[in-house]
Specification:
The protein is of the alpha/beta class. The protein has two domains: 165 residues, Rossmann fold; 141 residues, Jelly Rolls (Sandwich). The chain contains eight helices and 16 strands. Helix 3 runs parallel beside helix 4. The radius of gyration is 22 Å and the shape is elongated.
Length: 369
């Protein structure tokens, strides 16, 4: 069953989006179709909500109306030229993550040419478009519905059209299957974590054991199902920031094996392809609330994502970047424990080069407000 995100501009296709969402929900189920008018709660961060939908969707329907290409903002500038434009961001992120994107022409619109699009949207012109006309609305939507369920097999065709060898694909699981497998792994790792805690074993007592592959996206806690945060005293402590960055200590793939990173210090680490992840435990200074800034730099070709977890294993914020450094800032409570997780973004788990060391440097800074 596909999970579908509808991307549209209110200026020219809001009516089509609502009508299309109703048809798709009647066919695929309400929980499998996302559209901002009724899936984003009042007061919720619009960008985070879009990212959350893209993380779980298998197809994006990009509604293109007559004003989609030339829509302008209040300053008279074309919206598509703004990298922060939500429509551009939705489609570019979906293309980047190899989510199936279906250009859907409405209101007598025509398919834009590559020369008229920003670089991160040019691949859209290589996607076969579907037209939904006013006079044949239901028949045209029926064609779209027939095309949507086959997202798994069409994924391979899409990769080929982008010049990406399918030999590099590790497995052919759909995102929903990956989530299911991840959930199973998290349960198994949680049982192991609970056994260690109840038997009195310390996190360092199995430092020589093999690395785990739990996925903190699934379930309520990263790396471990333990209800208690890791004990910073018993974990590897990284103190120095004089000269060269300190070296990450392994294993470092869940909360129980997190490295304690002193604020201001830089650590050199590696995310070994493709299931590895790194955790760093930080403790904020006392006094007032502080702004914590996490910087991932000097990276190899890996496509990393940073996520921040509090001591109760609630996700605070996350950010990824395909190219360049990653900068993430969040408001932190005083004298509080947070865990910084570094991992591959979803698409990289399928296309990571096993010869890439996954090297990067991480610095965590804090300043009182």
């Amino acid at each position: 069953m596909p999970r579908i995100l509808i991307s549209y501009r209110r200026e020219d296709s809001a009516a089509y989006a609502g009508r299309l969402a109703d048809r798709l929900r009647n066919h695929f189920g309400r929980d499998n179709v996302f559209i901002d008018i009724d899936t984003i709660r009042p007061g919720e961060d619009f960008g985070k909500a879009i990212d959350r939908s893209l993380n779980s969707c298998t197809a994006l329907v990009a509604l293109i109306g007559s004003r989609w290409l030339d829509a302008k903002d209040a300053a008279g500038l074309r919206r598509l030229d703004d990298s922060g434009d939500f429509v551009r961001r939705e489609i570019a992120t979906a293309l980047e993550r190899y989510v199936r994107v279906i250009p859907t022409l409405v209101g007598d619109a025509v398919m834009p040419e590559a020369k008229d699009l920003p670089p991160d949207l040019k691949a859209l012109t290589r996607r076969h478009a579907i037209e939904i006309s006013d006079s044949r609305f239901h028949q045209d939507v029926d064609r779209l519905i027939e095309a949507l369920p086959d997202t798994a097999s069409d994924h391979t065709n899409q990769l080929a059209s982008d010049g990406i060898s399918t030999d590099k694909v590790i497995g052919k699981s759909t995102p929903l299957r990956l989530w299911t497998l991840g959930a199973i792994v998290v349960v198994l790792v949680g049982i192991a974590g609970y056994w260690r805690l109840t038997t009195g074993s310390t996190p360092n007592s199995d430092m020589s054991t093999s690395r785990k592959t739990s996925d903190p996206r699934v379930g309520s806690s990263p790396g471990s199902a333990s209800a208690q945060p890791a004990n910073p005293v018993s974990n590897p402590i990284l103190n120095s920031n004089s000269g060269e960055p300190v070296k990450e200590m392994e294993p470092n793939d869940d909360i129980l094996h997190s490295n304690v990173l002193t604020l201001g210090a830089t650590v050199r680490a590696e995310i070994r392809p493709v299931t590895d992840k790194d955790f760093f435990h930080i403790h904020t200074p006392p006094g007032d609330r502080s702004e914590v800034r996490v910087v991932l730099s000097n990276r190899s070709k890996l496509m990393p994502e940073i996520e921040i977890w509090d001591s109760k294993f609630n996700s605070v914020t996350s950010k990824y970047n395909v190219y360049g450094d990653v900068y993430l800032t969040f408001d932190a409570e005083p004298s509080a424990d947070y865990f910084v997780e570094c991992r591959f973004i979803t698409v990289n788990r399928g296309f990571a080069d096993s010869k890439d060391s996954g090297a990067y440097e991480l610095t965590v800074l804090s300043s009182a407000k």
